[in-house]
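Need tokens for this chain, all 215 residues.
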Amino acid sequence: MKIGIIDDNIKLARQLVQKLQLVDGMEILFVEDRGRKGLEWLQKNHIHPEIILMDIEMPDMDGIETTFRIRQAFPAIKIIMLTVFETEEKIFNAIKAGATGYLLKDEKLGKMLAAFEEVIDGGAPMSAIIAAKSLKMLMMGYKPESKADLLLNTDEQLTKREIEILEQLVQGLRNQDIAEKLFISPSTVKKHIENIYLKLQLSSRVELVNWYNKN
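Here are the structure tokens for all 215 residues:
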């Protein structure tokens, strides 16, 4: 099993690596102390981890935003939040960003390994206290503050090129026309369009135009 770690607490990250390296078949592909560094590592390397252990509180770009960006660009990667924070808002935002598990940093190795297997099998492992808080949120109809909405700022989702292509799409241009206008290949345009649909969670050009006009 291939693992990546993103945590700005170097001491804890090293302890985690030492613990995981005792397990047969466990390979640590990278350890980064910033969300942006982790994202850059994934973009530069062809071999990706099956699971990333993600801290929440990090400078520059926190673990929730990093999770959102990684899940948009690399949806096959599972992300388990590994943190000391357990507030309802943190839990909600991590899940909303695409986290597939949520464990406290003091979990025992056996629990962590079981969580790895569970998330690979399609489950969503959580520490007991996190699961209890999640259930409480559902029962109470918890709603996060509007500032927690990860989809409000389009500039944080779309690249400059994707925004250029989006603007051409809403004008009714075909893929071939866009390719010629931007001096790129039609296949590249198609790939960018697929990413736009994925990031904005839309499925047709009609929805795209409506979204564009609204926002």
